[in-house]
Amino acid sequence: MANHHFGKFADVWKHLTLVEVLALERPSRYAETHSGSGANAMLVDPERRFGVLRFLEIADTTASLGQSRYRALLKQFGDVRSFYPGSALLAMAQLGVSTSYLLCDLDPVSVEDLRAWSARLGITQCEIAQADGMTAVLDWLDDSAGSATPRHVVVHVDPFDPHSRLADGLSALDLAGRLVDEGYGLVYWYGYDSPNEASWAYHSLRETTQGPLWCGDVMLVDETGAGRPGDLGRASTSGTGSGIVLANVSENTRTTCLALGEALASAYSGSTVPDGTRGHVRFSVHERP
């Protein structure tokens, strides 16, 4: 299992957005640079109680969240207290057999799990690579040149370290910038540990690319609206946050993700965060047409 942070609040926002993008954009080709396992055995702890388990409670009383594709897929897979589906599994379940896939991860256990899930779902056009996701995605795009226009491709970039490179390859941010400028659909996840880093990936890509961008950023804050430096890799505390940068997607997709972000922040108002303090979610949006 490569991902030890599944089902946390950052995963909720990432997957809520990702599934909606895929449902609305309907790509014929879909790739992930850092897939992790298809699913993970669920943990019931303060992080998941604030994350996916809290989401399930509020979704049933919040119309837009309850009608989201993410909620529908969680219901389709059954008891989330048993296991939590990762992004690749959610994508395969949403897009089905008509889409071709490239799913990458360096962890051999995750790779085997992805293969098992793709076979279980009957996904035949699915390449699963135990390889550097950035290099593999570029090769995959080059191999498919002419068979699908960039507008019919979505790439999900979800790095552990956005700046690291293997050998002389691209970093996750480098790859994201190239995808933006070449017109490919992009879903880029980022996280941060300090309030002054909010929306950092959007600002970075805005400086280095020319294409259209949309960013939805969610940050945990305390009851006064303040945050403090934390450790997103360890816990969800006031001052930690994450976001999604979208590129080359439709106005309808951007509008839908905006509504979902607003609904999520409203529904989490007055929640108890995993460290036991009271707080809420600050949702902010940036956009370059």
TrEMBL record:
<dbReference type="InterPro" id="IPR029063">
    <property type="entry name" value="SAM-dependent_MTases_sf"/>
</dbReference>
<protein>
    <submittedName>
        <fullName>23S rRNA A2030 N6-methylase RlmJ</fullName>
    </submittedName>
</protein>
